[in-house]
Amino acid sequence: MPSSAIPGFRAVVPAGGSGTRLWPVSRADRPKFLHDLTGSGRTLLQATADRLAPLAGDDGILVVTGERHVAAVREQLPGVGADQVLPEPSPRDSMAAIGLAAAVLERRVGDVVLGSFAADQVVTGRADFERSVHEAVEAARAGYVTTVGIAASRPSTAFGYVHGGSPLDVAGAPSAVHVRGFTEKPDAATAREYLASGEYRWNAGIFVASTSVLLGHLADQRPALHDGLRRVADAWDTPERARVLAEVWPGLEKIAIDHAVAEPVAAAGGVAMVPGTFGWDDVGDFNSLAALLPADDDSGSKVLGDGADVVRVQSAGSVVVPASGRTVTLLGIDDVVVVDTPDALLVTTRARAQQVRRMVDAVRDHGREDLL
Amino acid sequence: MPSSAIPGFRAVVPAGGSGTRLWPVSRADRPKFLHDLTGSGRTLLQATADRLAPLAGDDGILVVTGERHVAAVREQLPGVGADQVLPEPSPRDSMAAIGLAAAVLERRVGDVVLGSFAADQVVTGRADFERSVHEAVEAARAGYVTTVGIAASRPSTAFGYVHGGSPLDVAGAPSAVHVRGFTEKPDAATAREYLASGEYRWNAGIFVASTSVLLGHLADQRPALHDGLRRVADAWDTPERARVLAEVWPGLEKIAIDHAVAEPVAAAGGVAMVPGTFGWDDVGDFNSLAALLPADDDSGSKVLGDGADVVRVQSAGSVVVPASGRTVTLLGIDDVVVVDTPDALLVTTRARAQQVRRMVDAVRDHGREDLL
């Protein structure tokens, strides 16, 4: 399927999040999105930009990231211009990041459709992804805040869900449906019910809307945040940017776009969903990372890195990240996770991979902030 | 208990063995005896020499070691003179090493009593150790090949056993008994029977005998080996050493002193045992090493190295050797063994510690001889 940029479409990439469950690969100075976690040769950020460039054009991508990551982002994305990277002085959650991008875009190019795609997700099936975005853009042009719902392949308790409803009936968006609501991460029983009903899909945090619609909802729902972001955007491309940021940014409400806009607007019937048919994962921890890697032997062992750096004897189902150049050897131990970096080593199990954040806390308590 | 050198006594320290079950700490170029495995600040070799110097005097210690280890041995034992280190061109097992020392000693100082103590064992209870050696020397002066039997604290299948008999009745050796025989490493059921009988003690490989008695038995039991060693010893302190070694050494029989002398002589009534009351361990693997280390937390976790280099979260009973300067972190994993060196990492379990040799084979098969 040939792809071409969608007229009047801009892609916003919030590149934030610390990825603490992927420590010690993911660090404060070099978080998850700056790493190649699939062995593809491209970092998650690069793969995200690669995926969006055909839809928005190279100059149609805006990356919103922390000031400390601007240099790394620009180095990884040489095709993205300096003014396409918006530095945040401090993290203010997704509504501020996406709202800032919307307000800056509106000042620069007028009312356009923006799609927001997190920098740290993995997507497979390029053609299906593009088809979904095309549909979402049409639904957005019809005035909807539009999300893409991912087919829930298992009753995951790690994701939020989108509850779909009746067909949207918008030209160019044949599969889109109305959204009845969003849910937080459910417990296991609820997740199973969701799956059985066939009405729920995973919320991948993809939101597509015209800037005027999005900022209009924001003005209704969170007027102070809206006004602050407008002030910052007005000053953005002027010598006043730093002064206004210093004045306004620290006081902005920290809130996710889901809570600020998607949920209340869905309740009022203003949100649509396009059912995505592509593969998607948020690579939350070393166990979910393992699912994205090819097996390195007959027992399902996975290696992120050079398989020649790992020697196993009677060890099945391990996940090894040999990232220090040393040889990692496993003897008679199953389902172990070994992450080997030049200054820190993590040994845990696949079953405990979701709890790596606790190790990050323990390392901080141990007085080794330098390792985080 | 004050200690003083025993007149006419010499200590022989065979410093060999690769310690493959302690890889990757123990390496071909730097085997087990060259490492501090107890956190005492002294290597096993140094601790052995420290223990023997009061009994034999600094100049009464002979170390028999491989040519490639001579420099390291001399560096670790500055008090031991150059002619007290006997280099072996290749490993020929313990009979050749001890027999060479005996023959060299006999040429240098005449008939003396020698005691052989491996360089890679750990002894606690200095006064008890010295008392045992004093008794063993008296039994040796009475013409016996004398061993020290260690109180078997558990039905170990990792050690050979000495079967004791009636009292020896030699002045100065009140606790010595006749030895009925030696056994190979037993199976678990046999080991339990040994323990229950009260007649068996662990064979620590300590042998004390006068050089004339030892070499006489060797001449009877293994005449070719005896003659070869005599030829080498005759040439040792002459310009002919290298030539004779090159001619004779490669053809010497590889056999342990247990099989060559101790077993056949015991059958003929010529072996005695002094029951040792000191603590002894051969530090065969990372699990037995753990038993020698103080606990680093309430759950029996052990660290050989700096405890500040290890962070544990819900991890009990681990053994960690942080030998690369990096921080080792364990999350939700019990009884794991993590050995962290600058070029190789081993992750296994305490239960599998005895099988580390298999990893050494696997690393060799992997083409990484450089890591062994």
Automatic annotation (TrEMBL), chains A, B:
TM spans (from-to): none
The species is Isoptericola halotolerans
Q: Which PANTHER family match?
A: MANNOSE-1-PHOSPHATE GUANYLYLTRANSFERASE (PTHR46390:SF1)
Q: Name one Pfam family in it.
A: NTP_transferase
Where does the record place the MannoseP isomerase/GMP-like beta-helix domain? 310-361
- What's the protein called, per UniProt? Mannose-1-phosphate guanylyltransferase
Signal peptide range in chain numbering: none
A GO molecular function annotation here is:
nucleotidyltransferase activity
UniProt keywords (A-Z) are: Nucleotidyltransferase, Transferase
Residue stretches making up the Nucleotidyl transferase domain:
11-292
Q: Which InterPro entries match?
A: GMPP_N, ManC/GMP-like_b-helix, Mannose-6P_isomerase_type2, NTP_transferase_dom, Nucleotide-diphossugar_trans
Q: Which domain of life is it from?
A: Bacteria
